[in-house]
Structures are given as C-alpha cells and as structure tokens.
Design a protein that fits this description.
159 residues, alpha/beta, 5 helices, 36% helix, globular, Phosphohistidine phosphatase SixA, His_PPase_superfam
C-alpha cells in the first residue's frame, strides 16, 4: 500500500486592496474549508498539513487540522513555489501529507505527478477553490513525474 499525498488549492478568498498574502477567506470560503475538512478527515488522520504563509492557505489548513487532528507545518517557500519546488519541499515528509497552496502551482503539480489518463480528468475539471487531488504514491522520497495514482478528486463548490 502506498502513501497518501493530497494537493489542495485554498478555499475562496476575498479580493480587495489588501496585500495578496493577507487576503482572508470569505464566508463562502470558510464554509468550503469546513466542507473540505470533513471530506478529507479520514485521509488525514495522523498526518501533516503543509501550507503556504498566505492567510487564505493558513485558514484552509487550520480547518483540516482541526477536523482531522493533523499537524500543521508552514513552509514560507510555498507562497512563490512552482510545481517542482513544491515537490522538493515535501519529499522528506511522511504520509499522509496535504499541501495547501495556490493556483497554478497546485494543479500543475497534480498534472506533473499523475500517471495515465488522470491528466485529462484534471484538465477537464480545472482547479476551482477548495479542490483537493488525492494521490497514492509509492514513496514520498521518490516523488517524480508520473509517479502517483489519482485516487480521488474533491471539488468543494462555492455556495
């Protein structure tokens, strides 16, 4: 049995005049984060939620950690990371791991590591806020292109 890796785009955030990294979740985003937390709770028991320092990512990660009991780890480099940086930054972590970050890095990383026809599914569904790509990987330390199997795709609608 493999290890679990979940890549998540943060829940819906406010737009406005504040600096980008300070934008909090909207009320809808708070609901999305809670719904997402309930849907990934079983995957994340005993795991670690790694997140960007952006307020919207922190708030999304906190909802998951609160629901699942997972530990939180902020990685400042995730705010500006590309998909390769993201994969390098989590390679030493043990499963289950969730990464809460931003578009386009999250969907690009998902497309990079997935094997087979799953790329078409990811492209077709897009990556709206509060989307989670649940992967099974053989070994987190050897995470590379086409090394993961997409086990679940969770899209938490904005209501």
């Amino acid at each position: 049995m493999g290890q679990t890796l979940i890549l998540v785009r943060h829940a819906q955030a406010r737009h406005g005049s504040t600096r980008d990294e300070l934008r909090p979740l909207t009320k809808t985003g708070q609901v999305q984060a809670q719904q997402l937390a309930l849907r990934v709770k079983d995957y994340m028991a005993g795991g670690m939620v790694v997140h960007s320092p952006a307020v919207r990512a922190v708030q999304t990660a906190q909802a998951v950690a609160s629901e699942s009991g997972a530990q939180l780890l902020q990685l400042n480099e995730l705010y500006y990371a590309d998909e390769y940086d993201l994969l390098r930054s989590i390679s030493a972590l043990t499963s289950p791991v969730m990464v809460v970050g931003h578009a386009p890095t999250i969907p690009y990383a998902a497309m990079l590591i997935t094997a087979g026809q799953d790329v078409d599914l990811i492209l077709k569904r897009g990556c709206p806020t509060a989307t989670a790509y649940v992967f099974e990987v053989a070994d987190m330390t050897r995470l590379q292109p086409t090394s993961a199997i997409l086990k679940d795709l969770i899209v938490t609608p904005a209501q």
